[in-house]
Structures are given as C-alpha cells and as structure tokens.
Design brief:
mainly alpha, 6 helices, 82% helix
C-alpha cells in the first residue's frame, strides 16, 4: 500500500499544474509564517497594530512571491530552464543570465498581481448571486488557472535558440 501511494505521488508530481498548486500552497504557508513573525516580533517596534499590519503584510507577500517564483522556476518549469540553456537561449554570461532572471521575475510578479485582481473582482461579482465563500472558491480556481497559463506561456515560455 505504501509503495502504491509513493508511486501515485510521483506520478502526480509529473503534472505541471499540480506542481504549480503545491508551490502555491507552500507560498501560503510562507506568507502566514512571515505575517505572524513580522506582526508579533520583527516589527513590534511599530506601535500601532494597524500600521504594523500594513508593513507585515507587505513583507509577507514579498517573501511569499519570491518563494513561489523560486520554486516554480526550479521545480515546476525546471525542464524549460534546461531546454532554454541547452538551446543557448539562456545566455552564457552572468549579465545575460541575470537579466533573464529579472525579466522572469517581473513577468511572474505581473501575472501574480493579475491573478489577485481577477480573484478579487470575480469574487465580488459572483457574490451578488452566490454565497461569498462559494464565489471565492470559484474565483480562486479561475484565477489560479489564468495565473498558471500566464506563467506557462509568458514567464517560463520556451525561448528560441540564439543564433
């Protein structure tokens, strides 16, 4: 039974969207942990709890975004990195490699913010006719699919070889 469960998990990991979802789940844990630590300890010098929450939440979102980008780059779309490097599209020099990383990070951040805005707008719109929790679940699914597609076709796309 244990062997079958292990094989099932290994098979599921081969699906890029599931990897994307697992990375997103890890980002939620990172976000919550940083939010708690910043709000309760790291930024305790900010006297007003509401002001401290603004700063804590900003820090939590920033760290979770970097976490998710890193793991999606190294795990979810690692095959694309190898393909692009083999084709010469990733560049040889560190300067070109760094600009590629920054470009990917910028696109990833934009795609994430688009997904957040889509979830927010859809939840508000759907909650006019559905229970707000159901509306939010539907919006999360739609936004995660759009976020995945944006990252798959834009952020981590296959790059043509450099002649």
């Amino acid at each position: 039974m244990r062997q079958r469960l292990f094989l099932l998990i290994e098979w599921l990991k081969s699906f890029r969207y599931i990897k994307f979802g697992l990375v997103g789940a890890s980002g939620t844990v990172v976000n919550m942990l940083i939010l708690f630590l910043a709000q309760e300890y790291l930024l305790a010098f900010i006297a007003q709890p509401r002001d401290r929450l603004y700063a804590s939440l900003s820090l939590a979102i920033a760290v979770a975004t970097v976490n998710n980008f890193t793991w999606n780059r190294l795990w979810t779309w690692s095959d694309r990195l190898r393909e692009n490097a083999a084709a010469g599209a990733a560049g040889v020099g560190g300067k070109l490699q760094g600009s590629l990383w920054m470009g990917q990070f910028g696109r990833y951040t934009l795609a994430s913010w688009f997904g957040i805005a889509l979830q927010y707008g859809l939840t508000l719109w759907l909650s006019q006719t559905l229970h707000y929790l159901l509306a939010n679940v539907i919006a999360i699914v739609i936004a995660s699919v759009s976020n995945y597609l944006a990252n798959d076709h834009w952020t981590f796309r296959r790059r043509p070889p450099i002649p």
